[in-house]
Amino acid sequence: MKNAPRGSNLKSQVIHRITATLMAVSLIAFPSLAGAIEVGDMAPDFRLPGADGGTYQLSDYRGKQAVVLAWFPKANTHGCTIECKSLAESGDQIRQFDVTYFMASVDPLADNVDFAEKTEADFPLLSDEDKSVAKAYGVLGLLGVAKRHTIYIGKDGRVLKIDTQVRPETSAQDMVRNLGELGVERRH
After folding, report:
1. How far apart are CA 50 and CA 35, in angstroms?
2. What is the pLDDT of residues 67-79, one digit of tens each?
């Protein structure tokens, strides 16, 4: 009988080690889980270069304006081109709201400059080349590119909505609808 507690203790240790190993492997295999943000969280600050030559920092907008950060997988690809053109063509509808909006990827800045020119983007495309911001937002996918997620951030810097079901063809209309539903102020 003395061996029973010892055996169950060993069994407990093995289960604990297996569980810890599985958790560690999942954070490595699924890096977006490690830094995933949720609605209500303060949005992680960032300072990223834009394809328009500017540098943009989220904290500059806090207390002033809502921000939309539309992550996209890869510049100059079919779906991303459709999404970017949708936002460019309907920018006047989006700008009816007191909001600054960006598209962002982990592409090199030069790729996003080329992409912005080809799609005639009239808003900044941000480059997160070291992938640190994508990790902080929980949007870095398994293949090392950003997932197509759109993050809505309130004037107070808190995450209002995380849209994980972005459709490139209707991204602008969906953004306008979401801004309205979230109660983002309209420009005067």
Report:
1. 23
2. 999 999 999 999 9
Q: Which amino acid is at 139?
A: V
pTM of the model: 0.81
d(Cα 60, Cα 66) in Å, to the nearest integer? Answer: 11
Local structure of residue 99 (DSSP, 8 states): E
Active site residue 80: yes
Give residue-wise pLDDT tens across range 46-60.
999 999 999 999 999
Tokens of 117: 């020119």
Burial 66-90 (b: 16+ CB within 10 A, else e): bbbbbbbbbbeeebbbebbbbbbeb
112 neighbors 75 (Cβ within 8 angstroms): yes
H or E stretch at 104: strand 99-105
Calculate what percentage of the chain has a pLDDT beyond 70.
Answer: 84
H or E element that contains 173: helix 171-181
Single out the catalytic residue among 48, 68, 80, 160: 80
Rounded Cα distance between 115 and 103, Å, is 11
